[in-house]
């Protein structure tokens, strides 16, 4: 027979434990943690050594000043790189300059469900012909987007293997 899940590792029922024993064990756990105040924690960190792997060399030329004593080295201990120039992004293309098939397909895929939702809310007795046209425009847009997908994995094309910096 399986043991109940609410028993501790010694097999005693948690509701029938001696409170003094629980307090004694809790004090043992707390004593094992060491000092818990902020001032004691700063002095508990070991000082970086020259031969240790606690951080980079404080005499490196890209350092402005070493971190405060008693602090470990971290990524924010280094100065930010100076910006060599202002980045000017290229002009975005005009809104109507995309492939007309893709634009119409996107309008059908996004616009038809929106029109169906508005028709259901504002025009409950919508004729079946309007519903058929909206559903057909959604399906035609989805098919148009499917056929607009690239057919081969041209890695040397404009997309390449991913992001370009």
Topology, element by element:
Elements (H helix, E strand, L loop, with lengths): L18 H15 L4 H7 L55 H23 L5 H21 L17
Helix pairs in contact: 3-4
Description of the structure:
By secondary structure, this protein is mostly helical. It has helices spanning 19-33, 38-44, 100-122, 128-148. The chain is flat, with a radius of gyration of 34 Å. The two termini are 63 Å apart.
Looking at this protein, list some descriptive labels.
165 residues, 40% helix, 0% strand
Strand tally is 0
SS-derived structural category: mainly alpha
Largest sheet: none
Beta-strand residue percentage: under 5%
Low-pLDDT runs:
none
What is this entry, summarized?
The chain has about 160 residues and is an all-alpha fold. The chain has helices at about 20-35, 40-45, 100-120, 130-150. It contains four helices and no strands.
